[in-house]
């Protein structure tokens, strides 16, 4: 199987919540000097889904060490950090994702959720409004914007 085929198969397994099997598909792609950033990102997501947050953080940091411009890894690391109560680090991760991809709706949405959680209503509203502008049919964007206004 090629690396692309392994990742595609692992994504399919991840989407049906078969995380250990998804990990097995990407395992050959996540170790050593030739580690694949997309495989590391997916392995980290599997680890988070399995409740293995320390390993998830390690994989995301490995992905970012290999490719610091991987916005999805910054966004996903931000989610993990936010869930761990590390708000300042989460905000920095979301901001890194947005610096790389200013039109990254998920990162705007997640940053809005972080601000909302912290009671920072104006920045939360601005982040949710930007996410909604980028993805107008996303119900959660609308709902969260309504909550903070």
Detailed description of the structure:
This protein has 149 residues and is mostly helical. It has two domains: 1-67, Alpha Horseshoe (Serine Threonine Protein Phosphatase 5, Tetratricopeptide repeat), CATH 1.25.40; 71-149, Serine Threonine Protein Phosphatase 5, Tetratricopeptide repeat. The protein contains nine helices and no strands. It has helices at 3-15, 19-26, 37-49, 53-66, 71-83, 87-100, 105-118, 121-134, 139-148. The longest helix is centred in the middle third of the chain and has 14 residues, at 53-66. The chain is elongated and about 50 Å long. The mean pLDDT is 94.
Biggest beta sheet attributes: none
> Which class of the largest domain in CATH terms?
Mainly Alpha
Pairing-aware structural class of the strands and helices? mainly alpha
CATH superfamily of the largest domain: Tetratricopeptide repeat domain
Globular, elongated, flat, extended or rod-shaped: what is the shape? elongated
The number of helical elements comes to 9
SSE series: HHHHHHHHH
Number-wise, the strands total 0
> At CATH's second level, what is the architecture of the largest domain?
Alpha Horseshoe
Write the layout of secondary structure elements.
Blueprint: H1 3-15, H2 19-26, H3 37-49, H4 53-66, H5 71-83, H6 87-100, H7 105-118, H8 121-134, H9 139-148
Helix pairs in contact: 1-2, 1-3, 2-3, 3-4, 4-5, 5-6, 5-7, 6-7, 7-8, 8-9
């Amino acid at each position: 199987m090629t690396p692309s085929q392994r990742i595609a198969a692992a994504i399919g397994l991840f989407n049906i919540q078969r995380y250990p099997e998804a990990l097995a598909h990407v395992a050959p792609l996540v170790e050593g000097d030739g580690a694949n950033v997309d495989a590391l990102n997916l392995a980290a997501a599997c680890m988070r889904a399995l409740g293995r947050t320390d390993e998830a953080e390690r994989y995301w940091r490995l992905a970012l060490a290999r490719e610091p411009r991987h916005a999805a890894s910054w966004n996903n690391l931000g989610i993990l950090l936010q869930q761990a109560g590390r708000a300042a680090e989460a905000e920095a991760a979301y901001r890194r994702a947005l610096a790389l991809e200013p039109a990254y709706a998920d990162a705007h949405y997640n940053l809005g959720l972080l601000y909302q959680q912290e009671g920072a209503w104006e920045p939360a509203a601005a982040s949710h409004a930007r996410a909604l502008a980028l993805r107008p049919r996303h119900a959660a964007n609308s709902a969260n914007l309504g909550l903070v206004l």
